[in-house]
Amino acid sequence: MPRESAELRKLLEPVVTALGFDLVGVEFLPGSPGLLRVYIDNESGISAENCEAVSRQVSALLDVEDPIAGRYALEVSSPGLDRPLFRAIDFSRFTGATVRLRLVAPLDGRRKFKGILMGMKDNHVVVQLEDAELVVGLDEIDQARLVPDYESHRSEGA
């Protein structure tokens, strides 16, 4: 999954916000056809109807602005339990959570890491691994996602 498209975020955020939702992130996966994935959220959760409403508005805006060449599918969804992290604010907000990172380029022969998110320090993401501390810039991260804690979600629903 590629990093977030800042240009598409800037274009879509006002529309998503006007509908009462937070724009969690925007990803474009090139291909034939490509896939434009828009993640939305709000405090009361996201329903299929919410996704449909945002999809209609975003689709109309994209038809007018035409920022993506070629064919692509639009997908609007909630971030889910394995929420993707895009911006520095996301890495600060979820301090203490378990995360999986995939780096753009290998670091000490590895691209994939899992550990406890310690937040941001001097514009770098800090993750406590089992045996070391990983400190990387946002531009070095290809993908970052929360690791779901299914046990705590099970007990919340009980």
Give an overview of the whole structure.
With 158 residues, the chain is an alpha+beta fold. The chain folds into two domains: 6-77, RimP-like superfamily, N-terminal (GMP Synthetase, Chain A, domain 3); 88-148, SH3 type barrels, CATH 2.30.30.180. Helix content is 28%, strand content 38%. It has helices spanning 6-18, 48-65, 88-93, 150-157; strands at residues 22-29, 34-41, 72-77, 98-107, 110-121, 124-128, 133-137, 141-146. It has a five-stranded antiparallel sheet with strand order 7-6-5-4-8. Strand 1 (22-29) and strand 2 form a beta hairpin. The longest helix is centred in the middle third of the chain and has 18 residues, at 48-65. The relative contact order is 0.15.
